[in-house]
Amino acid sequence: MEAYDLVVRGGTVVTASDTIKADIGIRDGRIIAVAETITTGGETFDARGLLVMPGGIDSHVHLAQPGAGGVMLADDFETGTRSAVAGGNTTLIPFALQRRGESLRHAVAAYHSEAEGKSYCDYGFHLIITDPTPSVIGQELPSLVNDGYSSFKVFMTYDDMVLNDRQLLDVFECAKECSALVMVHCEGYDAIRFLTERLERAGKTAPYYHAASRPQVVEREATHRAISHAELIDVPIMIVHVSGREPMEQIRWAQQRGLKVFAETCPQYVALTAEDLKGLNMDESGGKYVCSPPPRDEANWEAIWEGLKGGVFSTFSSDHSPFMYEGPTGKLNPRARTSFRWVPNGIPGVETRLPILFSRGVVGGRISVNEFVALTSTNHAKMYGLYPRKGTIAPGVDADLVVWDPNREVTITQGLMHHGPDYTPYEGQKVTGWPVATFVRGTCVFAHGDVVGPLGHGGFLKRTTTKYPAAEWQSTTRRGAAVGEGEALGQ
Ligand code: URP
Ligand code: ZN
Ligand code: ZN
């Protein structure tokens, strides 16, 4: 018997803390050896001239999730994970959504049926809490956390999801008691409704006005309110999809005061602007970019980079929430044509997350390649109870790898995508850096542009809770490498 099933040879191995030339020996889905040279072995993958990094972990994706008004997402587990592995990802954490009046256990069981046997990569589930009844708070959540669903998302907006302040406090207290992590969507419901109705009365109904109905002040206020509630309860929270300077500064202020406030940002906040929502000429094609919070402007991109470099953000996720553009359930559905308020919220991005951050961040000289790994993989594993099984390269851990060409120049087009929707919001954007191959527990699932399966290889991951000693929480959750510590690519 060969010592290894597979040896990935000659690559530059990058983790959140180190960059070394090494071979990686894999057996039974796990990394057995990381060594300067491995002479024995079965199959070989030639990684000379390429980077070998922990596979991307995208901790914010929506797949097979029922939307408002019966509109379905354009990706189920098969197409969503196909797109994910083609983008260099090896683990996703999508959301099991509790509909109001529904038990969480029921929502979770139904979501397992969606995923079982239909995933190319591994996955865990967050829970979306829309109806925090006494039995959800008192029984269901604690027992689900115990069973490996150790994070949940709550919303401060959206008609069918919004929780009031009292409900937020109840969920936060429950999270504290069961050591779960609460993810918070921070946009203020009443202010959005007020602005939406005012815009509609003025006849301002084109997709562009989606951005005007959700200005940063609305996000800043909700961010501050969520932080205040978390401080009251003394519970860690994760503020998701932060879009610009104003909420970023609230989070930085909270962190500087020693509060356990973590934050995530996404590609749309460094690569799209509200101008994109105008479409070609204030037309409906602007609907392709409707997501919440909306993209801001280039000055706000710089604020997001400031937060990425300065450790305000622990994770860079896609918030992949794909809808068709054309068709009866797409962004252009008949109701959506009457007002921006009915355009389904969300954009696809799981396949383009890594190239956009690598290109604009690493190649653009803003972050080191080690920071890239921390922001796209390691910190997701740490925050969501998967580390060290996932998110690093070391003997004993799952052989989840992306082999990456740091020099490949690609123009993003819909034709290159493996996702379900009929467009990419990043059409025409040029990037440098692209995945060559993706390995999930040692099995090649994507190579040289093709998803090679096998479908159903991905399995469910029970997650543990995030446990950081109080004094260390900040340093351990900041990106794996301190700024400047990691070796920057090409330096
Ligand atoms: O517009 C977005 N982000 N849609 C997905 C749902 C959410 O709020 O994350
Ligand atoms: Zn959200
Ligand atoms: Zn989302």
Q: What is the name of the CATH topology of the domain at 56-363?
A: TIM Barrel
Derived structural class? alpha/beta
CATH class of the domain at 56-363: Alpha Beta
Number of strands: 19
What's the main sheet like? 9 strands, mixed
- What do the pLDDT scores average to? 94
CATH arch. level architecture of the domain at 56-363: Alpha-Beta Barrel
Shape: globular
**What fraction of residues sit in β-strands?**
15-25%
* Low-pLDDT stretches: 469-491
User: What ligand molecules are bound, each kind once?
Assistant: N-(aminocarbonyl)-beta-alanine, zinc ion
CATH superfamily of the domain at 56-363: Metal-dependent hydrolases
| Rg over alpha carbons | 21 Å
- Residues in helices, as a percent range: 25-40%
Give the count of helical stretches: 13
Distance between the terminal alpha carbons, to the nearest Å? 41 Å
